[in-house]
Design a protein that fits this description.
Helix content is about 10%, strand content about 45%. By secondary structure, the chain is mainly beta. The radius of gyration is 29 Å and the shape is elongated. The protein folds into 2 domains: about 120 residues, Immunoglobulins (Immunoglobulin-like); about 70 residues, Immunoglobulins (Immunoglobulin-like). The longest helix is centred in the N-terminal third of the chain and has 18 residues. It is built from 1 helix and 17 strands. The strands form 5 sheets. The chain has a 6-stranded mixed beta sheet with strand order 2-11-10-5-6-7, with no helix packed on it. Strands 12-13-16-15 form a 4-stranded antiparallel beta sheet, with no helix packed on it.
Length: about 220
């Protein structure tokens, strides 16, 4: 009789354990770095290993700053509530349809220099939490112009100018043979953190058509 009671008890335990829903653990993966172009949209990548969207799942995007952590975006699956950070109103879109493929990447609209930094993708359920970080680098490449300012001593004074670069660019004057010239260059950063560059160089008249002004962005 005692053995029958023990077997019945074990069978009841097995049935009870089978009916308890176990939370699936998961991993969060992101790219080490992405580059955004000023004025355009960029996607901050975040992939979770599970394709099951749990009712209690939350996705948080945070920007890690030296002195504090800034909320960029939060999404709660249970309520379907989207909560963009105060500084990111109207600029964030979570790819929620990507839950079926484990994609919870965040689109950041109209990228600006101040967006540069490290972002953390945090995925939570009631029983599990995982995160991954990616560094957002910001770049801007714009057009430039060369002006002939007129005679200067034995040569001709040329000016190369351009505005709207990020990060700080490097400028070189190069002859057809690849020789670097020694210009006078001034670089300034404006209110929007964008850089303007103005450079002057004097060259012999017959060499003018063989000279290039090259502005390079480190990214």
């Amino acid at each position: 009789m005692e053995l029958r009671e023990q077997l019945s008890s074990c069978l009841f335990c097995a049935i009870l354990l089978a009916t308890i829903p176990f939370s699936e653990s998961f991993e969060v993966i992101s790219s080490p770095a992405v580059t955004g172009i000023i004025g355009q949209d960029v996607v901050l990548p975040c992939q979770i290993s599970t394709r099951t969207q749990q009712d209690n799942m939350e996705v948080q995007w945070k920007k890690i700053i030296q002195t504090h952590i800034e909320t960029v975006y939060e999404y709660r699956a249970q309520t379907g509530q989207d909560v963009p950070g105060q500084k990111y109103q109207g600029r964030t879109v979570l790819l929620k349809d990507g839950f079926t493929s484990g994609n919870v990447s965040l689109k950041l609209k109209n990228v600006r220099p101040a967006d540069e930094g490290t972002y953390s993708c945090i995925v939570k359920s009631n029983e599990w939490s995982a995160d991954a970080a990616t560094e957002l680098k910001i770049a801007a490449v714009v057009s430039m112009s060369i002006d002939v300012l007129g005679p200067q001593d034995q040569g001709i004074d040329l000016a190369c100018r351009s505005s709207g670069w990020f990060p700080k660019p490097e400028l070189h004057w190069v002859t057809k043979n690849g020789q670097d010239l020694q210009p006078v260059t001034k670089t300034e950063q404006g209110l929007e953190f964008l850089y303007s560059v103005l450079s002057h160089v004097t060259t012999l008249g017959e060499e003018t058509g063989q000279i290039s002004c090259v502005i390079q962005n480190s990214l």
